[in-house]
Amino acid sequence: MKKILFTLVGISFFLLPLMAQEDDLLSLLDDSEEETTEYVTASFKANRVINLHSLENTSAGVLDIKIGHRFGTLNGGFYELFGLDQASIRIGGDYGITDQLMIGFGRSSFEKTYDGFIKYKFLRQSKGKRNMPISAAFLATTAIQTLRWQNQDRDNLFSSRLYHTFQLIAGSKINEQISLQFSPTLVHRNLVLTNEEENDVYALGVAGRIKLTKRVTLNAEYIYVLPDQLAPEFQNSFSIGFDIETGGHVFQLHFTNSTSMIEKGYIAETVGNWGDGGIHFGFNVSRVFTLEKPKIK
Amino acid sequence: MKQFLLGLCLFMTVGLSQAEAQKYFTREGKISFYSDTPVEKIEAHNQKATCVLDVASGKMEFAVLVKAFQFEKALMQEHFNENYMESGTYPKSIFKGQIANAADVDLSKDGTYDVTVEGELTIHGIAKTVSTPGQITVAGDKISATAKFETQPEDHGIKIPSVVRKNIAKIVEIDVNVALEPFKK
User: What is the pLDDT of residue A11?
Assistant: First the structure.
């Protein structure tokens, strides 16, 4: 009997410090921890890669004023100061209605075009409770070209000024450095110049970024237009450049063969040729303003 | 002798089960921080902090998901995660410490106690020893704790580029406020 008691006491002594030495209190909660879903953020520094819309949206209540600028082509030579004498500009604003739904508006000097868009991010890359390897968004844009009619005598319809674009944007922030996205696109033009040109133009955009430092990324995008849809003088758009982020601004500096900064333009109306120096230097400046402060949940 | 041993044994067993009940926890602790400079006031709030308090030993541990800090400006929040805290690499900030004057406070009795908590604060993957005064209030089976302390981003290896040097305070104030409940397995 005594032996048993001593053993019991011994065990108790042995157990006590074992229980008291709960080194890691937080681990108590770990086994019962309700997992949370963590959404991946900042796959790109801005909501545009260069010309293409990126996987990112403007946050809820935030107004993002954008000024885009494309100089003339480098092959203009010294006479044109390598394109610096010309400029094509787009001034616009994007606004986040929710974190996943945004709208935007802009005016381009190129063909005096107004454009508006709506972009809905219906899938958000996440890990944790809900594991989703990709983000995906749907973009719809309408552009209104307002140049004077070339032929005043003919019956000109307002609808002939309209261009619509539908785009799926799907991609992934593969790791902290690399993000990649694909953008299958349909550009619809109500009026085209010749019979040979298609009203509906199908294209596939590919874009990516590499984060060089915390505040600088290298971006590139290429848009492949499926064959036999455009007149032969039109080229596929290729752009490469840097995103430089400084506090409230993102500066995007790049080289591109497209003059226009909106879908119908850079996808279906790019004439510059990288092979012979038909390259524009350009930049986008983005400045955000918080119009509506988020409620702290 | 027999009775004494049996009693001791019983006492310890009871003691054991009590030690188990003497842990308090929350998953909805509030942690805020404030950076105040003449140029810019920055504050962020996190309402999802985890905290466990062991009443018997006076040990306290906190963990907080860096991404769950909410800012007034979305871009600020992005920069906080991307450029400063690198929350992809260091998802959690953790504090593991101890009530230094545990002998002076009896957390099994109702009341408000001034305490000093000492321990290791790990932010951005870099640990630093901190000591801060705080207050613990016991009311029935609820324990709440508050503390205010300061830390320097620099001490945790967070580099602030010269362009924004004037916007971000050298010393950041951290506010902790947790309401704990008994932990049951």
Answer: 59
A-facing residues of B in 97-156 (CB < 8 A) are none
- The reply to whether A13 touches chain B by the CB within 8 Å rule is yes
CB contact under 8 A, A296 and B45: yes
Range of the domain at B94: 23-182
Q: With a threshold of 0.90, does the pTM exceed it? A: no
Structurally, chain B folds into a number of domains equal to: 1
User: Could you report the per-residue pLDDT of A242-281, keeping only the tens digit for each?
Assistant: 999 987 789 999 999 999 999 999 999 999 999 999 999 9
**How many Å apart are CA B126 and CA B90, to the nearest integer?**
10
Domain contains A19: no
What pLDDT score was predicted for residue B19? 46
- Residue A120's domain is classified under what CATH number? 2.40.160.40
Across the interface, of B23, B60, B94, the residue whose CB is closest to A28 is B23
Chain A to chain B Cβ contacts (< 8 Å): 107
Tell me if A109 is assigned to some domain.
yes
Contacts of residue B183 in chain A, CB cutoff 8 Å? Answer: 28
Going by C-beta distance under 8 Å and a sequence separation of 6 or more, which residues neighbour residue B132?
A: B116, B117, B147, B148, B149
Chain centroid to Cα B117, Å, comes to 10
DSSP letter for A279, please: -
Q: Examine residue A221 and state whether it is found in any structural domain, yes or no.
A: yes
The answer to whether residue B91 is domain-embedded is: yes
Q: Give the mean pLDDT per block of 10 residues along chain B (185 residues).
A: 61 51 87 92 93 90 92 90 90 92 84 92 93 92 92 91 87 94 82
Q: Is residue B16 part of a domain?
A: no
* Structure ipTM: 0.75
What is residue A115's three-state secondary structure?
Answer: strand
Which backbone phi and psi does B4 adopt, to 5 degrees? -60, -45
Q: Which residues of B touch A59 (CB under 8 A)?
A: 74-75
Q: Give the total number of structural domains in chain A.
A: 1
Q: Is the CB of A55 inside 8 Å of chain B's CB atoms?
A: no
- The residue with tokens 């906190």 is B62
Residue B3 belongs to a domain: no
CA distances, B88 to each of A27, A99, A168, A212, B149 (Å): 21, 20, 27, 16, 26
Question: What is the span of the domain harbouring residue A128?
Answer: 47-146+158-290
Chain B, residues 80-99, CB within 8 A of chain A, namely 81-83, 88-89, 91, 94, 96
B17 domain residue, yes or no: no
Looking up residue B152, the CATH number of its domain turns out to be 2.40.128.110
For residue A5, the one-letter residue type is L
pLDDT in tens, A198-254: 999 999 999 999 999 989 999 999 999 999 999 889 999 999 999 999 877 899 999
Chain A residues within an 8 Å CB radius of B89? 176
